[in-house]
Design brief:
Blueprint: H1 6-13, H2 16-22, H3 25-29, H4 33-39, H5 49-53, H6 57-62, H7 69-73, H8 77-85, H9 135-146, H10 153-156, H11 163-167, H12 170-173, H13 183-188, H14 191-199, H15 207-211, H16 234-248, H17 254-287, H18 321-342, H19 346-375, H20 390-399, H21 405-420
Helix pairs in contact: 17-18, 17-19, 18-19, 20-21
């Protein structure tokens, strides 16, 4: 082992305060980017390496000594509480599923849902979309965004505390962009974004001004619906709308802002109606056994088994062509429509969103007709046509809760009358 000269050792561990706190850390990390960033941060002189990373170097080297939100929350309790009650506080659980039965899983993924030594999950997992990805894709393509639930560094970076980083709207863009949540693109090319690019803050609204005022870590304040677009309960939606209007009123007349947001509400609900039309078409095909491959003949969905999944847990692999069309309609085009509307971007609302929703709905209707013709079946339900599958289809709709008992009984009576004529 190469010995370090004593005078050089003194230089490496100075100041004495850092040496006492960090032990041998500075011997190797004195010239590292992490140490330089720490020394120029607000934590310099107050925190050492071991205060956050612990003193077990082997655990650190293995990646087992994770610096999550609980570590930061020791000092930043208010920010942690705000973060946890917001949508950022459910990032992992909005995009993951239990991997215990997945071959070759990364055992470190257990911490997404479980605290160390605790068998009970932190919260109920809501989505399994990424569970079939490789561990590498999960880390790079999924969790770099979804780790926001348990990682302050996702926005603040690891060792810096410079507020300029988190006040720049581009820090939001790495996650809030793309086909399924294009808030960045919609804002950037809206009038708000144009003003910001020309004048900067505080003369124009950016992500932080509207969604994190006064440095709040509750990014959900003022939102009247979850990512699916389904409306909150009336009272909750009303209360949240008043919060957003208070923010809008800093620049706009309250009545004008209210009308703009009400128009966006209407666009969102109209879009969801079109999504529901597409969903009903595909469920009808499934009831008739016309999807290829049928859900019963696929690999099991990691949470729902062999049933047809068309909600937020829908996968985008091992599905039929018509389901792929629906995924793009629901996850991409519909999101662009109403998120474009809420960010006052006409092109995203219309051409990137609404027009694409309707074109994809046309494609779904055409593909459904082709599948019915190939299966030698007509359509049951909307137009009243009857075929030999009518009673089975009706029963499945009743079992899903789409039809109440009285409506089911009446439709069943009509079908039987038709058959017996």
């Amino acid at each position: 082992m190469k010995l370090i000269p004593f005078f050089l050792f003194l230089l490496l561990v100075s100041p004495a305060q850092a040496s006492e706190r960090d032990g041998d850390c500075l011997v190797c990390h004195q010239q590292s980017a992490a140490e330089r960033q720490l020394q120029t941060s607000a934590h310099s002189g107050d925190l050492g390496c071991a205060d956050c990373h612990g003193s077990d170097h082997d655990a650190i080297d293995r990646g087992d000594s994770y610096v999550g939100v609980d570590v930061c929350g020791r000092c930043h309790q208010q920010q942690l509480e705000e973060h946890r009650k917001s949508r950022h506080g459910m990032g992992l659980h909005a995009g993951w599923g239990c991997t215990r039965n997945v071959p070759g899983r990364d055992k470190q993924e257990c911490r997404f849902c479980h605290r160390e030594g605790d068998t009970q999950p932190i919260s109920t997992v809501q989505c399994a979309r990424f569970i079939k990805q490789s561990s590498e894709m999960g880390q790079i393509g999924c969790n770099r965004c979804h780790m926001i639930e348990n990682s302050c560094a996702g926005c603040h970076t690891n060792h810096r505390t410079d507020a300029r980083i988190v006040k720049d709207p581009r820090v939001c863009a790495k996650c809030h962009m793309g086909p399924d949540h294009p808030q960045w693109e919609a804002w950037q090319t809206s009038q708000h974004g144009t003003l910001y690019n020309a004048l900067g803050a505080p003369d124009a609204p950016d992500c932080q001004l509207c969604h994190m005022p006064q440095g709040s870590h509750d990014v959900s304040g003022g939102l009247t619906a979850p990512p699916s677009g389904k409306p909150y309960a009336q009272q909750k939606a009303t209360d949240q709308r008043q919060i957003m209007l208070d923010r809008c009123q800093e620049c706009h007349v309250r009545g004008f802002a209210a009308r703009e947001l009400q128009n966006a509400d209407a666009v969102r609900l109209q879009t969801l109606e079109l999504v529901d039309q597409a969903r009903a078409i595909i469920r009808d095909l499934d009831d008739r056994g016309l999807l290829d491959p049928q859900p019963t003949k696929r690999l099991e969905h990691p949470q729902r088994g062999k049933e047809l999944v068309l909600d937020g847990a829908m996968l985008y692999e091992d599905i039929s062509h018509i389901e792929s069309l629906f995924f793009r309609l629901n996850k991409y085009a519909a999101a662009k429509t109403f998120k474009g509307a809420y960010h006052q971007n006409p092109d995203y609302t219309h051409w990137y969103g609404n027009a694409e929703v309707k074109l994809l709905l046309n494609d779904i209707r055409g593909e459904a007709s082709r599948l019915r013709e190939r299966g030698g079946q007509g359509r049951v339900g909307v137009n009243g046509e009857m075929d030999e599958k009518a009673l089975e289809v009706l029963q499945r709709r009743h079992q899903r809760g789409e039809l109440g008992d009285s409506e089911y009984a009446e439709k069943k009576r009509l079908i039987l009358e038709q058959i017996l004529q």
